[in-house]
Amino acid sequence: MNGLDIKEFLDQDQKKDLLRLLTAGSVDDGKSTLIGRLLFDSKKLYEDRLTALHRDSKRIGHAGDDIDYALLLDGLKAEREQGITIDVAYQYFSTEKRKFIIADTPGHEQYTRNMITGGSTANLAILLVDARKGIITQTKRHTFLVSLLGIRHIVLAVNKMDLVDYKQEVFDSIISDYKDFITQLDVPDVTFIPLSALKGDNVVEPTQKMSWYHGKSMLEFLETVHVGSDRNFEDFRFPVQYVVRPDLKYRGFSGAVASGIIRKGDKIKVLPSGKTSQVKSITTYDGDLDYAFPPQSISLTLEDEIDISRGNMLVHPDNQPHASRHFESMLVWMDEKPMDPYTHFYIKHNTHGSKAKIDQIRYKVDVNTLNHQEVDHFELNEIGRVIITTVEPLFFDAYKVNHQTGSFVLIDPVTHNTVAVGMILDKQDSNLLPTRITEDQKQKIAGGHSLITKEFREKQYGQKGATIWITGLHGSGKNELAFLLEKHLIESGAKIVLLDGKSMRSGLSRELDHSLPDRAENLRRVAHIVKVLNDQGILCICSFTSPDKNLRQQVSEIIGPERFHTIYMDADLNYCREHVDDDLYERFDANEAKNIPGLDISYDIPENPILKLKPQHNAENVEKVLQYLLKKKIFPLG
Description:
The protein is α/β, with parallel strands linked by helices. It is 28% helix and 27% strand.
């Protein structure tokens, strides 16, 4: 072959259509064998692979005296040992008419996410059925997953026909059963092919052993099936990936055409700004084009200087996607860690990213029976229908209309793992959102009751609303403990509010003195403030002398006894006189102050404090309080 022949061959190969397909089936249905047979019989294997295949078939094969074609695909050691497919195996080959990328996906339920990954870009799915077993639960599950992925073409390959003597009635019975099932799903094109992957019947060449079958062989069908119209050429969507500015004269917007066709001179609209312009040029690596279509990667220049950045979308002004923060979606959970419904995820949609939360799980789908189940979270490989709300609006179409703009992934904000993939069903009417105001909620609002549950707040904050009430004589070290404790808790991520006598009396209780009635009023006000804060899930640290046990009891009842935790600072009067930070005791001695606890009014020592602490050890005291909070599952929430 001379240089010109090689160039001509490469040019022709470049122009070939590409078909992406996946294979799926139950264990030992023959997926890997079928693909291996396609490669072998179409003579697309190099000599070294053929030699290795013959050698490995004798050494570790599972096909007896025959060649084990599955070994061409089962590349992992664990796969070869078990004779099953575990990971997604991709295989590329081409014929005179077409190029192929095949994803051989595992059939086990625990590998659902692998099948979703392998089928995410597929145009066609080959589902294998063992002719001896017929349509089984896994066949139905794989069909559901294929329909979920929006794959429009299914080939039901009834394999191992050689083991049922190539009987037509067996094939016809399987077809009938499958047609009864698939009417529940949205799959527009289904083809049925009887074959024997091991023997090569109807794989590449038609067989005389099934003269009653008048359809195409598997390879002939794959070479001729029309998938070009599966792409959306109607709705132009161009998510901007990069802004290209090599010099002052050129400003282009690069990315892949997600759908539709764009031509020079077309009017375009930029989302979300809404600004419009005209296409000045369409540039590719190979030069300028008059028009572009998916999945071409291009750079567009515009007639006008418009502020456009990564994540923006260019569309035709008279054909725009939905723009909304709320949408309904089918979600496939792909993380080993179960879903936390309170997590705010990062959503990746085309080139745009935003924060998102799962507002509601409508139901989980039992992929084996298609029944709907009520759940409050998803586990690995589970699939369900959800409502999602994003911080910023997304520009999307329904997945069945446009796979590119109708799909997204959710990313864990801490681990950065991709935890789920989603297929958007439609935008969600705000009147149907779980955040809408219902009649029951209206009544709660009218009664001054929050719409947020205590459990939700605890989960969000990682703590319980509670009050640490530190009491002791003036100068007993209670303020020092309170402020040290506040510092440690905030540094650990707690949501804290600290209240002490000085802060209250310099503001809310400014007009009150230290008489017994005014002391009672001051503490009453403190109690009601703290109750509201605890109701909001906030931890409160309160440092007040509060000498009267009856007043402390009233405060406890207002806040809630289960949330009220008393700490007693055990310091005698002599210690307090020496360590007080003002002249209160001196003014009392000079008859300039009165109503001083421990002097002219009594101080009631708490009978059952959670902790009785000495101020000389406040550094250690902080650790004791933290251990108490941990033990009681107040913070961090246990």
